[in-house]
Amino acid sequence: MIKLVSEPAIATKIMKMQQRVRWQAREIIERQIDQTCFILDDGRNGDREFSFLVIGDSGTGYQKKHHPQRQIAELMLPHHPQSRFMLHTGDVVYLVGSSEYYPHNFIAPYREFLVGGENHRQIPYNQMTFKLPIFPVPGNHDYYDIPLIFNLLSIITLPIRRLFRSTIDFDAAWHGSYQGDAYAQAFLDYLKKWRFSGELAEHLDQYYTAKTNTGRCLNYQPGYFTRLPNRYYTFNYGGIDFFALDSNTFNQPQPLPNNPDGDKQRINLKQQRDSLIQRKREIIQTLTKLNSEKMEEAEQIDDLEAHLSQIEEIIVDIDKQLGTVEISNDTEQLNWFKERLIASWRNPEVRGRIVFFHHPPYVTEATKWQQSQTLTVRKHFAQTLDAVAQELGDIPQGRALIDLVFNGHAHCLEYIQTLDTGHADSHINWLICGGSGFSLRRQREEGGDLIDNDGRHLAHSHLFLGRSGSGRQKRRPYSCLRVDVCDGSPPKFRVRPLVAERYQGEWHNYEIEPFLI
Question: Which of 77, 116, 398, 487 has the fewest C-beta atoms under 10 angstroms from its C-beta?
Answer without folding.
Answer: 398
